[in-house]
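HUMAN: Forgive my ignorance: could you write out one protein's sequence and backbone structure tokens?

ASSISTANT:
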Amino acid sequence: MDNNRPIGIFDSGIGGTSIWAEIHQLLPNEKTIYLADSKNAPYGQKSKAEIIALSIKNTEFLLNLGCKLIVVACNTATTNAIQELREKYNVPFIGIEPAIKPAATHSQTQTIGILATQGTLNSALFNKNVEKFQDTKIIEQVGHGLVPLIEGGAINSLEMTKLLHSYLTPMIDANIDYLVLGCSHYPYLIPQIKKILPSHIHIIDSGEAVARQTQNVLRDKVGFSTLENTKPIFYTNSNPKVLSDILQNKYEIIEKDF
């Protein structure tokens, strides 16, 4: 059946597995194919043209595998390339953006922090969303060096701890009460971040919202799978061990140059 075709998910590496996990938990009968473009990570320092080209390459890889819907599980790729992808391909796309709205809406101090890549913070789509919340002070911080450390399996390293302290301390001093994680890699840093932030500061990522939107699009446009006990497929073009470790060695990883 056409509805039983897989959902394709791509990211600039292993970070989007945080999005995949939310989708797989909510929609366990959907077959999923995850593409980790670790060879080209991070996307955050690349030009818009480079990000679009990489996103097209990833999309075509997944479409060639028969995907019925594609989740761009990367903030940088979403904010820089999803419009072009939607114009080019006749398949639904779901993107991921920093969850500014819930943070700004619920903030009591009217001050929130956003930790994201340079590519996301510089994008027109991100800045258009920021403009909607003029009454909220938004402290933007580029997470220089975080993605390479995560991709290198150094989540709990001393270097990671030092970087996070340097990025989060000014936000704490500015009296934020919400921290928005604007990169799909960053949820893997939540245990580290919680050790640094005071307990009253809430951490928001977009994974659950993306999973719900995926469910909505399947219901309204594509159709749900009738399969049971599906096995996800993971592709990577670099660091298969790091991807396997982040998935707790539960799934087969296919290393392929793309």
Remarks:
- Residues 59 and 75 are 15 Å apart (CA to CA).
- The first strand starts at residue 7 and ends at 11.
- The first helix runs from residue 17 to 26.
- The chain has eleven helices and ten strands.
